[in-house]
Design a protein that fits this description.
Largest sheet: 5 strands, parallel
Shape: elongated
Strand order of the largest sheet: 2-1-6-5-7
CATH architecture of the largest domain: 3-Layer(aba) Sandwich
Distance between the termini: 34 Å
Strand content: 15-25%
Structural class: alpha/beta
Radius of gyration: 22 Å
Number of domains: 2
CATH superfamily of the largest domain: SPOUT methyltransferase, trefoil knot domain
Number of strands: 9
Helix content: 25-40%
Number of helices: 7
Order of helices and strands: EHEEEHEHEHEHHEEH
Low-confidence stretches: none
Amino acid sequence: MRIDIITVLPQLLESPFEHSILKRAADKGLVEVNVINLRDYSDHKQKSVDDYSFGGGAGMVMCIEPIANCINALKRERTYDEVIYTSPDGQRLDQKLSNRLSTLNNIIILCGHYKGVDQRVRDHFITREISIGDYVLSGGELAAAVIADSVIRLLPGAISDETSALTDSFQDGLLAPPVYTRPAEYNGWKVPEILLSGHNANIENWRHEQSLERTRLLRPDLLD
């Protein structure tokens, strides 16, 4: 998989892909993440990529020219399955969407900034808009990192035990059950006996019941 992230602040995305699962996935050749500085595609003398909004109003708007220059240059090199724009009014990111994106080959993620992008970018270049929640960030870089993380960890081989990702919260529409590790007793607090029984069928039934109960208590909307 290849993920090209277009941003005006590439420094914000240096760290997320240099550690843990994301770095191991890149080292294994499972994914190639390229952080692209939008200013490199600006024709402006000062390399600016924003301007005032037509009609007035507070805030600057990202211009169409550098974005078009960048996306068109990338598309001349390969075909992209999705061109994603990080936007608070986009489709809410969930596990189902992450699963789908993880099956693709090439993705562009355009990080929103300032007051947003010229609407013509959204009308003519973007194939999918994604939001990570009902709030506004200073820019789309953190959202892009979240999207990439949720996708890359699903790639076969990214996680040593591939079944681990399949038992995460939301994969079956439920929250994950509680988990425990050694010691079996600490400060008088004991691990549930069922988990020490060695009876796999009973353990799986217990975990499913716990998932249902946690979902009812914490996220009843998922059961709707």
